[in-house]
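If it is no trouble, can you show me the amino acids of a protein and the tokens describing how it folds?
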Amino acid sequence: MPNVDAWLATPTGRTTSTQRIGSVAPSIPSRGTLTTHLLAQPQKQRRQVDSSEAVLEEEKMVKVEGSQFFGGNKEKEEFFDPVAEAEAGIATFVPDTTSDAVDTILPKATTYDRFMDRDAFLDIDVAALAQSLQVQINAALYEGAEIPADASSQQYTYVSSALEWTTPLSRKGDGGLSPLQELEAALEFYRRLDVAVVSGTRVSDSTFVLRWTISLAWPIFWEPRVLITGTSEVTVNERKQITRQVDSLDDTDLTASIARQVFPRFWDVYHIGMTPSTEVMPKLSVKTSPLAPYKVYDIPPQLVLQPTMKDLGTREDNNAGLIPNHGFSCVVKTMGPQKQRYVPTSPTEVQIRPGSDGNVNLKWTIPLGVEFLTNPSLLLPQPDQETPENIDPDAKYVLQPRRQVATVPYAGGPQDVAIASIRKRFFEQIVKDGLQPKLDESGRPLFFFWQNSVKTCFTEEGLGMAVYEYRPDIAKANEVGIELQVSDEPKPTLRS
């Protein structure tokens, strides 16, 4: 994996370096630098707080104190759901009705083993390499994330000498560290650093391409989240040793990409203190006419959460504007001494499609928090008792391939009456300008809606909370979008 710290060592941050790593003797600090050297050792990060039953019992005895104010009660009013807060972080169970044993219980939620997904990892060898590196990355970055003893025989390692590593990011010191050592050294600088291996494929018997996402909390007082995405071409020998690695970035202008994410976004400042800084889905701008009323983006492949359901309501119900209960896999504990740290992501995408039974089908697409994505197994959301069965509730994790989309700004919600006319004019403009809309199996264009005002909040257990920000209509904060044809995809026939 590339070093995400050392780009600061060069003014441009875009220096491409190729170097063979030989045996490097550890430096011995002098007496005068010993204290500084010891203090500079990187400290591994802690995972998010685990709300165990013991912790919950402890918190029941903690009084929430406020200030006396014009005769008000000394004990602060609790503007939150105490039941939801108490259940945060606790696994949910349902009775096993298929068993004769009345007291038998089964876990309600199932898990998604992402390294077993062949849409994400081409075959068992690709998955084994990716999982081995993910385990080692986690061990380098997180406290308690040690490599299991039974995994040592399956572990892929970097050669101890003569590793050929080409990366668009400059490296720390003399460049004698391996990619894993570079990541660990980066903890000296960044407030948070998370790296997830997202997918992988095979080039030859010994060469693989792994896709990754890096999330950084930049070390300034508002701690903006910076996402960097790219790939690594890895060559492995017969002893499961990585002998060569070539890194590539999706956005080659790294300095501009980081600057866009570090600079305070207006609505983050406007809603300061509401949530931590957001991981915004990477999207690369595609050059269009300066007079075009829309923007075109190239979106790298990503693993997403997709809740789906039938919409049996009306436009006035605005079911598409709210993430359904069966899309959540946990509850975020937001108060008390053991409150959980969480990472927001944005935007939430909504698709409204006609169903074969005459009903409308809703599908939400939610980008995952990178720290959550570092887990080999992801908790799958399940319908709760309030979810009616006749809406066919479902939620799954899906690897989205590379996408190209066009969007126009919009002030309202996904089920507004005005959306139909906007889509029609948008489609006509796209075709007039020579762009190729992507069509479904029925020949219909694929429209979607980006809710930029929605922040989906992830803990290590999954999606636990959604925050809906207020933004005035004049801001046109949301976007109506249409999928465009990617060059290597087949083109269905346009429906008349």
